[in-house]
Design brief:
two-stranded parallel ribbon, alpha+beta, 158 residues, globular
């Protein structure tokens, strides 16, 4: 398994994967623990994350290979359908899955997402619009959602 580190505005991203795809992207408070060289199977993931953070990328086109149950993988696939700059609720996500009663299981699968930002679990909020549950910390979730908002148009002066 290859590993790369990327400094982001939110901490150090730890990217793991191989020729089969990216298996995890996690965030850490700690500085990188390895040399700055990026293994070839992870170069595209690092490039696309860099583009995301400078505002030049709104979707990811990466080969993914996360480990999880079939149910988790299905929910992670649904998460990838949430458009950039939009949010959905855990209830809406469970309805989209086909079982509104599965809301707790959907929330648990969301929380186990191993692909930070690329599988946008940060776009799932409470039904009341609140920022609920985020493994990376609610301050990061808030930052990511604000980062993805379209720029506000300035008012014209006469």
């Amino acid at each position: 398994m290859n590993k790369a580190f990327l400094e982001t505005p939110l901490g150090t991203a730890i990217i793991e994967g191989d020729e089969k795809g990216v298996s995890s992207i996690l965030i850490s408070e700690d500085p990188p623990q390895s040399p700055a060289n990026i293994p070839s199977p992870l170069q595209e993931a690092v490039k696309q994350l860099q583009e995301y953070f400078v505002g030049k990328r709104t979707n990811f086109e990466l080969k993914l290979n996360p480990e999880g149950t079939d149910f988790q993988k299905q929910i992670w696939q649904e998460l990838q359908e949430i458009p950039f700059g939009k949010t959905t609720s855990y209830l809406e996500l469970s309805k989209k899955y086909g079982d509104p009663k599965a809301i707790r299981a959907v929330a648990a699968a969301n929380g186990k997402n191993p692909l930070w930002i690329v599988v946008p679990c940060h776009r799932v909020i409470g039904s009341d619009g609140s920022l609920t549950g985020y493994a990376g910390g609610l301050w990061r979730k808030k930052w990511l959602l604000e980062h993805e908002q379209p720029e506000k148009q300035q008012s014209l002066q006469f």
